[in-house]
Amino acid sequence: ALSDVRLRILTLVILSLAVYFLPGAVLPALLWWLLLSRLTGKQRVKAAAAAGLISALPTIVLLFSSGSTAFFYGGKTFTLLLLAFWFGQSCAAGEMQSFCVWLFGNHIGFDIGMACEIFLMQTAEIQQDAKTYLQALSEKQKGFGIRTILPFTLGILIPALRRTERFSKLLARRGYSRGGTYTPRFTAEKIDGFRLAAAFLVMLSGVLF
Question: Are 107 and 179 in contact (CB under 8 A)?
């Protein structure tokens, strides 16, 4: 693991609560993401583009009904999505299993952790499927539009469902019913504490301003 997932989750919760409830925390949280996320330039661009696209539609809709307050809502949504993407991109295999077992024990925690790990694995597979499909469209010199939305969706959804079915059958064949034994492993870095302290400062700035 690159850092302690427990501290990253606590940091994410503090930042998300601050951004959601405190208007003055939105800009400091954006600065936190820019300075402390440790994402590469390519990851930042992709995250910003995805967050912008997702937050654009509700912002435009609210613009007609709520006026200028829609821009604040859009900025808040954009920032929350960036924080969520940061956490997702920083997760390593097995971290959520370690966290859930540490928090809930080897019975419930094991099941929840395994579900989280399967979800993250599926998300990575879906991203790869989407990338492959878009590359195929590019090679065929076809653009992504209305005619390709349905095939694109089915081309991602069907393989994901098949992978889930195969995984379920594999667990059944191995006799899995519920619970298990797992030893949590955590690796902390100095930046974990620094990120957490900076998150508290973001919340404080939201309270003050």
Answer: yes
CA gap 105, 147 in Å, rounded? 48
d(CA 92, CA 182): 16
- Token reading at 110: 């094991």
The string of pLDDT tens digits covering residues 1-49 is 457 899 999 999 999 999 999 999 999 999 999 999 988 888 899 889 8
**Structure tokens that stand for 24 in this block:** 């003055």
Q: Are 100 and 110 in contact (CB under 8 A)?
A: yes
Separation CA 88–CA 73 (nearest Å): 23
d(CA 151, CA 4): 40
CA separation for the pair 130, 35 (Å, rounded): 30
User: Which pair of tokens denotes residue 194?
Assistant: 């620094």
Q: What is the pLDDT of residues 59-118, one digit of tens each?
A: 888 888 777 788 888 899 999 999 998 998 888 888 999 999 999 998 899 888 888 888
Tally Cβ neighbours within 10 Å of residue 93.
11
State how far the alpha carbon of 84 is from the alpha carbons of 13, 34, 164, 209, in Å: 10, 14, 24, 24
Number of residues in the chain: 209
Residue 62: its H or E element = helix 41-66
